[in-house]
């Protein structure tokens, strides 16, 4: 099966490309550069302008949208981009789509999450047979915050925030399964094996890396703090196996 992976050069997208290859599918990573990923020949397209999308999607049995925005306040990849992808897919006859999303976006006030919810609805309201895989925050999410503050001597955490961090590789496995063997479900969820406080993750990261810094309450937007405290980002539906500490050890 030929599976086009939009955003196939990104962190999640490249993991999905590898997972599809391991299952015997033929992934086509699509990005603005068009570079090959893990031996899979890439295709060049711009989802915001729509340039190259028809050619990239031609002959696909399904598409996976793993696109992301490098700028968290720029929603175009999730709104304009999703509409362009859907329109191109409908034109060339792609029957199915799998969208990688985030747990609890329908309950969050964070602008980034609201745009992800809009992206979900664009696909679900289209003529495509669409399913959405909602994942918890990747292990990298917390580490990115910690590493950003560490040079300044502080480790920012979300006060009272609870996370159920999951390995990208395990999310990619679920997305690949859904692309190749559809479950028939509109929504699937996956989270990590443990629910952890943001402060606990910071301490674990410091212990593994030896990074110095004072753990402080970070300057996160109130809407993000509300989300992380609400439990909207937690799930019991499907759990990964790789803990935060195990992921840190493998990363090191």
Report strand order across the widest sheet: 3-2-1-4-5-6-9
Structural class: alpha/beta
CATH superfamily: NAD(P)-binding Rossmann-like Domain
Give a quick account of the main beta sheet: strands, pairing sense, barrel closure: 7 strands, parallel
| Count of runs of 4 or more consecutive helical residues | 9
**Rg, nearest Å:** 18 Å
Number of domain modules:
1
CATH architectural arrangement: 3-Layer(aba) Sandwich
Total beta strand runs = 11
Mean pLDDT: 96
How would you describe the shape?
A: globular
Task: Show unreliable segments.
Answer: none
Looking at the structure, the CATH topology is Rossmann fold
> How many angstroms separate the termini?
35 Å
Strand content: 15-25%
Give the C-level CATH assignment.
Alpha Beta
Helix content: 25-40%
Order of helices and strands: EHEEHEHEHEHEEHEEHEHH
Task: Give a short overview.
Helix content is 38%, strand content 19%. With 252 residues, it is α/β, with parallel strands linked by helices.
